[in-house]
Amino acid sequence: MLGLRFGMTGRLVVDDRPVIEKLEYSSGRDVPEWRRFEVGFANGGCLAVIDPRRLGGVELDPDETRLGPDAFSLAIGQLAAALEGSRTALKARLLDQRRVAGLGNLLVDEILWRTGLDPAREAGSLGESEQARLADGIKFAVAELAQRGGSHTGDLHLARVRGGSCPRDGELLDRRTIGGRTTYSCPQHQK
After folding, report:
1. pTM score, two decimals?
2. Structural domains of the chain in order of their starting residue, each with its CATH number
């Protein structure tokens, strides 16, 4: 098994054709020095990872036991266990792949914006109804944004700029660093 992590700009190329034509934060160019990994197949085809910023990684036979439950099939009990007793910021906890696998920075901002939860709030402070709302929000956002083509297609995404306003209520968005990641949230409806 091959484990691939793409970061913000990594792309998968099969037989010199990109699997995804355009990424939001990637140039789309294929500079030879950016080919971080390449494997040729017996039939003559090849698979390559192109990563200009070196944010991704490739691992042979990754230890999947290090990962939490997959966000796409996350059950409420699994989410509750991931959050239980944590004083860590909610966003940081959701980005921890050991707790919930498959959530990235843009996606977590979108999910928390949609569910009305403050990313800086202590993860363990969510009540049962908030946990249920978050679990449903995660599954719905992951499925919907995958259909749209990625987390950069979220409803909040265009407003994720300095001075951006909440698409829901027009409030000026807060821009903070949470868990080492740039975070945008609405002070009006995210509590």
Report:
1. 0.84
2. 2-60 (no CATH), 68-185 (1.10.8.50)
